[in-house]
Design a protein that fits this description.
With 80 residues, the chain is of the alpha+beta class. It has 2 helices and 2 strands, in the order αββα. It is globular.
Length: 80
């Protein structure tokens, strides 16, 4: 299965973006760049889960990265 399309950050932070109750940012060091401004003053969190959209490798390796990310997210969300 092909991974879902990646939204541009402006799609979820721009003036036309919906308001969020929660915003969870994935990736490396959260202090490495500017933080997005979310509409609605959501509760925010940074989870150091690798972003599978920036992964490389064969189609099978990229699909495995998406599955692993989904598993890690599912585990964290279930704990919330």
């Amino acid at each position: 299965a092909e991974p879902p399309p990646v939204a541009d950050l402006a799609d979820v932070t721009g003036p036309e973006a919906p308001e969020f109750a929660f915003a969870i940012v994935l990736g490396g060091d959260p202090s490495a760049g500017p933080r997005p401004r979310w509409r609605g003053q959501p509760i925010t969190a940074h989870w150091p889960i690798p972003d599978p959209a920036v992964g490389q490798g064969s189609p099978a390796e990229r699909a495995a990265a998406w599955r692993e990310t989904a598993r890690l997210l599912r585990n964290r969300i279930e704990l919330m």
